Amino acid sequence: MKFLLSNDDGYFAPGLAALAAILQGQGEVNVVAPERDRSGASNSLTLDRPLSLRCAPSGFCYVNGTPTDCVHLAVTGMLAERPDWVFSGINHGANMGDDTIYSGTVAAATEGYLLGIPAVAISLAKRSAGHFDTAALVAKDLVARLCRDPIRGAVLLNVNVPDIPYAELKGWRVTRLGRRHKAEPVIKTQNPRGEAIYWVGPVGEAQDAAEDTDFWAVANGYVSVTPLQIDLTAFKQLEFLSSWFAA
């Protein structure tokens, strides 16, 4: 199998190194990641300036752009052959519920999916992130399952792994996205010149964490696997709006 790896934490991130190390034993691995941390970049493309592609001594390539830029550049201009799978991560922190809208980790996988390549976003669901090895082994297990029973057609999977030793995982759960409370207020402070500056506040706590959600699965020691889709159409409103405009 041919793998394209990316992330949003930057090409130097320990999670990316752990993912690359374990997948190198499963097939051909190419890494194209941002040159710096681009967490929260979502699905943005850089259109106002050219991008540069460089390679580090590790063999990892890096781009002065977003996670989406990295995957787009790799697939449409760098790689001689299309990868069989795009893997994004291992992210330093969870990407569950509403996080997926903002996540650069999910965005990198989404770009692969939009280009017709099956894709996986994988995150270690705790900011302390002490067990990247656990998430790496989960990625290896997933690849083994894909080899035994390939998934046909377009697929985009969002995987969140509890930050615990691999032996303590309880198994896998296929989940839906939960929901968070609204985000905490921005944090207002001052720069050295006395001018007001603002930091985006922390995310809210889980509001919908029912047993079928990603929040519940991770909190209870399970690997959460959520299939994602990109169609933003509000289908339930189509009939109402059609009648509203016809009136």
Describe what this molecule looks like in 3D:
The protein has seven helices and 13 strands. It has helices at 14-23, 67-78, 99-102, 104-114, 132-148, 214-219, 238-246; strands at residues 2-6, 28-34, 53-55, 61-63, 85-92, 119-124, 156-161, 171-174, 179-180, 187-190, 196-199, 206-208, 222-227. It has a nine-stranded mixed sheet. Strands 9-12 form a two-stranded antiparallel sheet. Strand 6, helix 5 and strand 7 form a beta-alpha-beta unit. It is globular. The mean pLDDT is 92.
Write the layout of secondary structure elements.
Elements: E1 2-6, H1 14-23, E2 28-34, E3 53-55, E4 61-63, H2 67-78, E5 85-92, H3 99-102, H4 104-114, E6 119-124, H5 132-148, E7 156-161, E8 171-174, E9 179-180, E10 187-190, E11 196-199, E12 206-208, H6 214-219, E13 222-227, H7 238-246
Helix pairs in contact: 1-5, 2-4
Radius of gyration equals 19 Å
Distance between the termini: 55 Å
Arithmetic mean of pLDDT? 92
Number of strands: 13
Spans of at least 5 consecutive residues whose pLDDT stays below 50 are none
Apparent shape: globular
SSE order, as H and E? EHEEEHEHHEHEEEEEEHEH
Strand order of the largest sheet: 3-4-2-1-5-6-7-13-8
User: What share of residues is helical?
Assistant: 25-40%
Structural class: alpha/beta
Question: Main β-sheet, in a few words?
Answer: 9 strands, mixed
What is the number of helical segments per DSSP (H or I, 4+ residues)? 7
Instruction: Work out the strand percent.
Output: 15-25%
